Amino acid sequence: FPALPMDLTSDDTWMFNAKHNLQLNKEYLKTWNTTVFASFVDHKMDNLLKNLDPRMLNASTDAQTKNYGARTEGQWMLKNGKLYLGADYKVEAAKGIREREFLMGPNAGKIVEDNAWQDSQISKTGIFTEYHFHKSTIMYVMSGRLEVNNAQVSDATPEFIAVNPETSITQINPGVSIGAVKNAKEGFNMGLWLGRAQRSGSLTERYINYFPVGLDPYEMVGNPSILPEVNNQVDINIGYRKSKTNIEVSAFGSYLQDYISSEIRADLSPKIPSSPGVRQFINLDKASMYGFELAWSQILIGGLQHSFNLAYTHGENTVDNEPLPEIAPLDVRYTLSGSYLDGKLNPEISFRYVMQQDRIATSYGETETPAFNLLDFKIEYQVLKTLKAVGGVNNLFDTAYYEHLNRSVKGTKDAINAPGRNVFIMLTLDLM
User: Fold this and answer.
1) What is the distance between the alpha carbons of residues 416 and 406, in angstroms, rounded to a whole number?
2) Alpha-carbon distance 145 to 56, whole Å?
3) How many angstroms separate the CA atoms of 220 and 411, rounded?
């Protein structure tokens, strides 16, 4: 495996959350809610449990991440609708050092430290509002947000500064949307949504320092000066509901400006010689995405019911006429289930088909993924009021497959396959 794989060996997580709800009897102001939250994670990863032959080096990474912030929001009941207004603040920070101990070769006995996160931090301060109102049989929703995004690093390395001379930056991100939902006669409902949203790069996209954090072993380099990504999107939803049938269709189209992606940098050398290379986060000037989802469920005769789901997304770098990376292919799922003995016995069989993904971004280092079919079966039986037995088989035909977002490893001929045939039996005891 060419990418210095490591396992999580320890994890220490602390999470805090406090919430205050205030109910008011004012003429317009009805409620005020405030939440304060924090999470602190200290974890360690190493390769000491890997069966490596020969073992060229021992590697370990100690990382500490923290997230904390607050959100406050009020609700006003106006003559023609409902108004929400509030503000929030959030801080994300990370630091971590990877230690490599060389066991063989000319560097045997040496220990090298890599500063993966560089003690980086992003703070976000925002104000937001949302207004709901009805007119005839249509409900309208309008919303807006303005955010100040400040990113900085406290321990930048010389090699990172050589690629990114500017390491601290402040960006302002506005966002606005409007939508309408109409409940028509005979079980139909329709919705139309228009929006423009803008986001700055994440902590990883800005400050990761020659460290593999993606779905492949490329070492990633951040870009503090990356421009905010702008998404101009339209969504259409159509639904139909009757006593035994439910159909929902949704479609979207998105025009993206300064889309945040990454590309291979042939002029940069990885820290681990066996790595396939270095990829840096960049902006794609213009891109587009569109797709749809279909969900259909129906109650049949003889205690049977079935459901059908279909999902597809198409992404394109419209400047270079290249597919966007990390786009899953067409996914089709069908489930047939039954309910017998007053709901005590519930068999279920499900089928899944995933199309080949040959729309790949070569500048990203993507590889194609073959199509696959899966068949699963399970049966549940309520033995007692408090005891349920479940048994079944996943991947009944023992298909060798892997998802596009878990594809073959660059530099090898082998894929990271998903689990094969899996037979399971479970007993669930409910004491509530």
Assistant:
1) 7
2) 51
3) 16
Cα gap 425→377, rounded to integer Å: 12
- The predicted structure's pLDDT at residue 4: 63
C-alpha closest to that of 349 among 318, 329, 377, 387: 377
CA distance 84 to 95: 36
Q: How far apart, in whole angstroms, are the C-alpha atoms of residue 80 and residue 77?
A: 8
The string of DSSP codes covering 66-86 is EEEEEEEEEEEE-SSEEEEEE
Per-residue buried b or exposed e for 346-370, using 16+ beta carbons within 10 Å of the residue's own CB: bbbbbebebbebebbbebbbbeebb
Tens digits of per-residue pLDDT, 367-376?
889 999 999 9
- The pTM assigned to this predicted structure is 0.83
Query: Which backbone phi and psi does 404 adopt, to 5 degrees?
Result: -65, -35
Spatial contact of 230 and 198, defined as CB atoms under 8 Å apart: yes
Percent helix, strand and coil across the chain, each to the nearest 5? 5, 60, 35
Identify residue 94 by its one-letter amino acid code. A
Structure tokens that stand for 197 in this block: 């949203």
Q: Are strands 219-221 and 278-299 parallel, antiparallel or unpaired?
A: parallel
Run of H or E residues at 5: none
**Cβ burial 59-71 (10 Å sphere, 16+ → b, else e):** bbbbbebbbebeb
CA-based end-to-end distance of the chain? 47
Gap between the Cα atoms of 211 and 281, Å rounded:
12
Torsion sign over Cα 321, 269, 403, 251: negative
**Closest of 345, 377, 371, 343 to residue 358, by C-alpha:** 371
Q: What is the pLDDT of residues 207-230, one digit of tens each?
A: 999 998 877 788 999 999 999 999
Helix (H, G, I), strand (E, B) or coil at 165: coil
Confidence check: pLDDT of 314 > 50: yes
**Which secondary-structure segment (H or E) carries 255?**
strand 245-264
- Nearest one of 230, 309, 224, 219 to 265, comparing CA atoms: 219
